[in-house]
């Protein structure tokens, strides 16, 4: 079993820092599925809670690997993204041994088939995350990093499956994220990820990761920026060749990171805001 912290660099693939919005402002655009919007509509304002919409993981066939060389096939994200709901809590810097010490939990996970990414709704305890919320209001945006466990890593070149780093082939040990002579990038394919940790960190790192919006309770206006994505799904081999020129990086502990721009607190405004764009 390999435990990873998956880093996702904010700003790649035309992703933007998105303003934190009042939930009532969340107006559906083409990039958000109706499933996500319907869930947001069920959220209730609470004086002790704040909600956040996070753009978590993107499919490798469309966005490539992350900087550590970790590649998540679309099929794996579709099959395993709900482990965020079953296991996921919000921590600080991956201090994740005790869920009771977490700042919150992952309420809802959805795979967006149009944008080819996992989107999460977080519930944050306002007292435990007070300093984070203060930073968000000031525009000092923390990143988001996600931890997962995989039973093995699969080499994109030779197909070797390693249960530990010690079992890595020479490709993953010596050439991670390098492009081979045939044009194929060396990546570690993650086919069975179980996601258990969403941490607030300071350094950003995947292509589309980011707090897309934040739902709290103040009457603030905001907006949600768009994230562009490919519209066709090539096979894994073709995808790995097409992303050969992309700059990526990762290690066996993997994080999904992002930034946040602003905070608001009412779930309904989140919906209205998305539709207005």
UniProtKB/TrEMBL annotation:
This is Uncharacterized protein.
